[in-house]
Amino acid sequence: MLAREEVRIKVKVRNNLLYKLIMDGGWVHRNSKINVAGFSRDSKLCKVSIEKLLNFRGSPFCENGEYTPSAKKISSFFKVDVEKLFPEMLYSSIHKPNSSRAITLEQLPRIKYDNGTLISELKQWGGDINVEIQGS
């Protein structure tokens, strides 16, 4: 039997504060995605640590509640307070950074074309969230 839900929406949550600093610093691939490997190489910081903090797969906090050496090094590189780049509230509120959900075509949010990027407004899942829809 065919599933009733014709569409699967996938959401990835990232630390946009760190993401923007990397983008604005020029570490970008030709396809407009950030280049974590290039940033890691130029900053001499661990790529895996950067990715974990960027993608909420790792905590910027040690067990004693202080910031990890990686979080401090990244903040220092950008000359930003570690508390501003890795706010405790942000990391304590994100529990599932990658998620997908099957929906019907009727539930598919309105899609508009904006500056060459497909944007979907997912208001029914928590306010005014703009999500970039990428082709495969």
Mind explaining what this structure looks like?
With 136 residues, the chain is an alpha+beta fold. It has 2 domains: 97 residues, no CATH class; 31 residues, no CATH class. Helices cover 33% and strands 18% of the residues. The protein has 6 helices and 5 strands; from the N terminus they run βααααααββββ. The protein has a 3-stranded antiparallel beta sheet, with no helix packed on it. The longest helix has 10 residues. The two termini are 26 Å apart.
**Sheet bearing the most strands, described?**
3 strands, antiparallel
- Structural class label: alpha+beta
Number of strands: 5
Q: How would you describe the shape?
A: globular
Strand content: 15-25%
Mean pLDDT: 78
First-to-last CA distance: 26 Å
Helix content: 25-40%
Key features of this structure:
5 strands; alpha+beta; single chain; 136 residues; globular
Task: Explain briefly what this protein structure is.
By secondary structure, the chain is α+β, with helices and mostly antiparallel strands. It contains 6 helices and 5 strands; from the N terminus they run E-H-H-H-H-H-H-E-E-E-E. The strands form 2 sheets. A 3-stranded antiparallel beta sheet has the order 3-4-5, with no helix packed on it. A two-stranded antiparallel sheet has the order 1-2.
